[in-house]
Amino acid sequence: MTALLEARELTKRFGGLTAVDRASLTVEEGTITALIGPNGAGKSTFFKMLAGEIEPTEGAVTFRGRPITGLGVARVCRLGIGKSHQITQIFPNLTVTENVVIPALAARRGSFRADVFGSIRRVDGLAELVARTLAEIGLGDRAGVRAGELAYGEKRRLEIGLALATQPQLLLLDEPAAGMSPAEIAETVALIQRLRAEVTIVIVEHDMDVVFGLADRIMVMQNGATIAYGTPEEIRADARVREAYLGGADDA
Ligand SMILES: Nc1ncnc2c1ncn2[C@@H]1O[C@H](COP(=O)(O)OP(=O)(O)OP(=O)(O)O)[C@@H](O)[C@H]1O
Ligand SMILES: [Mg+2]
């Protein structure tokens, strides 16, 4: 069986700095994989290479067995990989609906036209897709609100919605729960649990309750390299991970 996504020995150098050092990952369809590691470990850089946002210095990515290295974010998105960003990409002066329309149209056409908002009703299925996306992220009743006026947790869910609106087969979420209150984190975890029925997910996250509550597989990065990969139980038991990242918390 072909894996949904396969990243082989990805390396990214920025000048003299090796941000990602021969990191590999295989993602099976229908799973949630979490990517963890200290600040600066290379998680976001690795993620950006999966989504085609940046090109690896070395290594290759395949999606459903097809090489996608170097295709660029627009083509990778149209093939079925959607990504939410660690730093939010929403337009504060546009409404929630308008924010979702942009990636929905971009994924279909490769780019959106100047008449984008006037044409919503004329693009087949677009209004339904936007309504379904807003319902999924729990913002159905906030459709006409300016995105800048949303609460913080709502903005982060909208950020997930921007990726969902491209109808991905693989959803990449970079720290979806960052900066959230416990109640907002619980809502986000519930949202991701609902999404797992329809889309394969890879998530970068610092909150260990979120990671261990959601993930089927966990990959641990440090200094750009993968230091461990396995089930949550295997990661919990891994001496190197506990020393490097979990701070030996269980030994206290
Ligand atoms: N565009 C860039 N140019 C130069 N250096 C970069 C660039 N992007 C990332 N880096 C560096 O690469 C390393 C890995 O950064 P990255 O953002 O991937 O880490 P991260 O694991 O996502 O960290 P965090 O948990 O803080 O989000 C860091 O040292 C960072 O400063
Ligand atoms: Mg990051």
Summarize the structure.
This protein folds into 2 domains: 1-71 and 190-252, Rossmann fold (3-Layer(aba) Sandwich), CATH 3.40.50; 81-167, 3-Layer(aba) Sandwich (Rossmann fold). Helices cover 34% and strands 24% of the residues.
Structure commentary:
With 252 residues, this protein is an alpha/beta fold. The protein folds into 2 domains: 1-71 and 190-252, Rossmann fold (3-Layer(aba) Sandwich), CATH 3.40.50; 81-167, Rossmann fold. The chain is 34% helix and 24% strand. It is built from 9 helices and 10 strands. The strands form 2 sheets. Strands 6-7-8-3-9-10 form a 6-stranded mixed sheet, sandwiched between helices. Strands 2-1-4-5 form a 4-stranded antiparallel sheet, covered by helices on one side. Helix 3 (96-109) packs across helix 4 and helix 3 runs parallel beside helix 5 (152-164). The relative contact order is 0.18. It binds adenosine-5'-triphosphate (ATP) and magnesium ion.
Portion of residues in beta strands equals: 15-25%
Under CATH at level 1, the class of the largest domain stands as: Alpha Beta
What's the multimeric state?
single chain
**CATH architecture descriptor text of the largest domain:** 3-Layer(aba) Sandwich
Order of helices and strands: EEEHEEHEHHHEHEHEEHH
Q: Report low-confidence residues grouped into runs of 5 or more.
A: none
Question: Globular, elongated, flat, extended or rod-shaped: what is the shape?
Answer: globular
N-C termini distance: 43 Å
Work out the helix count. 9
Helix content: 25-40%
